[in-house]
Amino acid sequence: MSGAEILIESLKKEGVKHIFGYPGGVVLNIFDSLYDNKEVQLILTRHEQGAVHAADGYARASGKVGVALVTSGPGATNTITGIATASMDSIPLIVFSGQVPTMLIGNDAFQEADIVGISRPCTKYNYLIKDVKDLSRIVKEAFYLAREGRPGPVLIDLPKDVTVSKAEFTWPEIDIRSYKPTYEGNKWMITQAAHLIAKSKKAVIVAGGGVILSGGSKELRELAEYAEVPVTMTLMGLGSFPGTHALSLGMLGMHGTYYANKAVQGADLLIAIGMRFDDRVTGKIDAFAPEAKIIHIDIDPTSIRKNVRVDVPIVGDVKRVLTVLNKVLKEEVKEQWGEVRKAWLRQINEWRQERPMTYTYRDEVIKPQFVVEKIYELTKGDAIISTEVGQNQMWTAQFYKFDKPRTLLTSGGLGTMGYGFPAAIGAQFAHPNKLVIDIAGDGSIQMNIQELATAVINNLPVKVAILNNHYLGMVRQWQELFFNERYSYSHLDVVPDFVKVAEAYGAVGFRATKPSEVEPVLKEAFKIKKTVFMDFIIDWKEKVYPMVPAGAAIDQMMFEEQKEKPEKKLKAVK
Amino acid sequence: MRHTISLLVENKFGVLSRIAGLFSGRGYNIESLSVGETIDPQISVMTIVTSGDDQIIEQITKQLNKLIDVIKVVDMTELDHVEREMVLIKVAPRQEDKAEVLRLTEIFRGRVVDSGQKTYTIEVTGDEKKIEAIVELLKPMGIKEFVRTGKIAIAREGIKK
Q1: Where do the structural domains in chain B lie, given as residue ranges?
Q2: Which pLDDT tens digit goes with each residue over A415-427?
Q3: Is the previous residue joined to A546 through a cis bond, with omega within 30 degrees of 0?
Q4: What per-residue confidence (pLDDT) applies to B159?
Q5: For domain A3-164, which CATH number applies: 3.20.20.150, 3.60.40.10, 3.40.50.970, 3.90.1640.10?
Q6: What is the rounded (10 degree) CA torsion for B28, B30, B31, B34?
Q7: Homologous superfamily of the A187-354 domain (CATH)
Q8: Do domains B2-79 and B82-154 have the same CATH topology?
Q9: What band does A571 get if pLDDT is binned at 50, 70 and 90?
Q10: Structurally, what CATH architecture does the domain formed by A358-545 represent?
Q11: Nearest Cα to A171, choosing from A200, A145, A143?
């Protein structure tokens, strides 16, 4: 078998059905092997960045390892943003990049780039294959590394001659002696945690993306319900616990809910699960959760005590640790929480009523939050939502209630504009019958708008809801609030006619300029089995609130000023 | 505080740059670094001297452990251990200082490994303090060139703090 055939055979062994990619000179042999292959389908994107984001969206929506295949040089360097996006959010991904023939490496050959060197800081691991005999083993190792422990992207650089050379296909057992993740939490630590939970009067769970990655949502819910502990989530954690649950406080942090931030700041115990205390979550670190003891459960030891002090560190897989913790709580602690919990939950409900998640509805102009609420209402939460980055992302996080894991695809760590649309395409391949919607801004949709061609040619019914304010809205918001309204290069004077752009690609375009048009446009879009762009012309003045200014404690929140007289106040959908 | 960290790593190309990249990417210092093969040619041992408060050192050791090619990380500073470093010093003493240079070399149990018309090259092995001491003493005699290996360290048998 040739190296190219060994590669395809290895992918089959790993159960890969879809690869997202883009051809080029040095990967022609691999593409030739894909030509009449029935089991592994390559989806041709229109940009390598789109291919990696699509593989990432596929991975997030399905829980499988996403795969991308690109050529050397510019093909490889174009994947970097996608790889870094996956790396920051711990998404399992394999990127195969072509490379110039081994004998030319280092010669500044045509389309040569040291992609192993370039991708080193943003991959979990990477390989340059020099001998075809190593190929299948390395592919197997790469899938193992991408998937196991804290997941992440792995890059494999394939010189052209390796894809041509012949070898026997083998599928060896692998053993990476230097990589042995800890899955089981330390029992003594878990018992300590259980006693802390039993003793605490004002506990809060902070759930992160790790809960989703480990498949621990059921165990999390069991813990929260049994110990009667309210749950707040990081952006990456949305969906790990039902957003509609009475114990859900929604998202915390910079644009978190008032009641989540108040609860964290007033808590005597934080149970941090599969999250890493990002600065967008903690705000001013010295003032974060000042009265709380902290239990931190994470599979990555480096996450623990990186940013905040921790009283009970538990290294392990979230699902397994929570299973044991729940058991210990029920069998050994058997606390009757009763009155203690009631007082804390009452306090939280007071905060909830004091400042619920709201916005000011207006009849004459579309509020972006209204669009997100309508999408939630019409889908009843049964959809996969991706977002771009900026205001569109925060409004989605605030006003769409994610009930199930793997229903929100968003670039949390890196904050990559242009992520949402290709990610939605990837997710649609993983779930052909699900409604997949990218909630975008007019700025970020233009960062990977070429993928319209990918969506159309594959008959993907992906929907894109563009919250169009003719601004890079989040930048504009900061300029308005912190830079004396000096809107330096954040106004997108010329925004294309998105309806016509959609039509030019063979997709369907709709536009809504009034609130009364929002629901009909969404209904129509959800009905047709085609790629649809929906251009919602929104109130450009609208800002994301609450907001914690950079460097402030998370309970130092800014709220919408009620200068204009509200005509009709709508409450957030519960 | 200063820490001497000893690593067992897979002897593969790119490992050094992964480790160097970790330090530069996260803003940690490397004061010295030495690498060599172990008895098992597939494994290298690396000794890194770095500094930082307890939290930083904890992060450094955890981050090193997280690298796929790192097999084992030991913070030697927490153990009873032996440290050594070697220097080669090329001195160009005046005629009247030559005897003193040779006398100092002997006191420090060094060796003259090369001598020419104008210079002696002296080899000295020892811990950091010893190296610093001989360098201080030889400075007034006129050091022309100076190379040091960086520290290597090994734990003493069975005694743990």
Answers
A1: 2-79, 82-154
A2: 999 999 999 999 9
A3: yes
A4: 54
A5: 3.40.50.970
A6: 160
A7: TPP-binding domain (3.40.50.1220)
A8: yes
A9: very low
A10: 3-Layer(aba) Sandwich (3.40)
A11: A143
Q: Which of B21, B63, B68 minimises the CB distance to A178?
A: B68
Out of B10, B59, B68, the one facing A302 most closely (by C-beta) is B59
The low-confidence residues of chain B, meaning pLDDT below 70, are 159-161
Report d(CA B130, CA B124) in Å as an integer: 9
Distance CA A315, CA A544 (A): 35
Tell me if A116 and B70 make a contact (CB, 8 A cut-off). no
ipTM value: 0.88
The pair of three-digit structure tokens given for residue A503, joined into one six-digit string: 């039509």
Q: For the domain bounded by B2-79, which CATH number is listed?
A: 3.30.70.260
* Residue range A174-193, pLDDT digits in tens: 999 999 999 999 999 999 99
B positions 45-84 inside 8 Å of A (CB): 55, 58-59, 62-63, 65-66, 68-71
Phi/psi of residue A511, nearest 5 degrees: -135, 145
Q: CA dihedral defined by A333, A338, A342, A345, rounded to 10 degrees?
A: 30
Q: How much is the pLDDT for A564?
A: 46
CATH architecture assigned to B82-154: 2-Layer Sandwich (3.30)
Residue B100 CA, chain-centre distance (Å), reads: 27
| Alpha carbons A249 and A234: distance in angstroms, whole number | 11
Please tell me the predicted confidence (pLDDT) of residue A335. Answer: 66
pTM recorded for the entire structure: 0.94
| Phi-psi label, residue A239: left if phi above 0, alpha if psi -120 to 50, beta otherwise | left
Active-site residue numbers of A?
48, 110-111, 160, 474
